[in-house]
User: What shape does this take?
Amino acid sequence: MHGDKRHPNAKRSRTKSDLGGPAAERRRAIAVSAGLAIITFATFAGSLSNGFIDTYDDRFYVLKNPNIQDGVTISSITYALTGVCAAHWCQAIMLSHVLGVRLIGSST
Assistant: This one.
């Protein structure tokens, strides 16, 4: 063998310094995250113009529910966190409905 000399055709393993270090890793992570966000937005952008559907759950949960129609109030938040709607206790869903009516409105 050649002691500690490497064979000319031997592949050297990459180290973090070869790849740019922590700053380059952070930039790659941000680029990948931004790319995924753009792809996700592009995929679902068409749904932003969709309204509520008056024939399914939207009527019961949102359109005809006065607790949700009031928008963001103390009583609507209390209802969302403690109330039961259609035999379900779904705090996150109810809070999202309250915020949705506040931000987008409803078509009642």
